[in-house]
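Good day; I would like, with your permission, to put a structural problem before you. What I wish to show you is a protein chain and, alongside it, a tokenised description of its three-dimensional fold. Thank you for your consideration; the sequence and its tokens are set out here:
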Amino acid sequence: MNLNHQSDRSKDVSNDEEDHWDRLPKAQRSAFERIAAGAPPRCSAQTLDSLIRAGLVERHNEPIAPPDRFGPVYQYVYSVPITVHMSWAEWAKRPRRKRRLKVLPPQRPPDDLPLFSGGREGRAA
């Protein structure tokens, strides 16, 4: 497997874009992180194709069985170009911005409501 070549479709991912990696859909980010860590991807073919088209991942053929009368048997292996991997590693080590959620104060129920609404005590006479 030759990982020393640079793909023509590989794009240099800019570190200037602060949220470039944050904008990836969850499925693509999960697949990319598995590939970058050296694990096989567990995602749909569409997710892999979109990562390849974006230049974030490269696909290689790797022989898995010696050639026989039917020829060699190959499987797809995925890798991340070094420039993309470096950009991702820089993004991953940054502290995350936490979203500020609006916290509402607890509301007390009005005193005139009955505690249990199912019994006769809760009905107006």
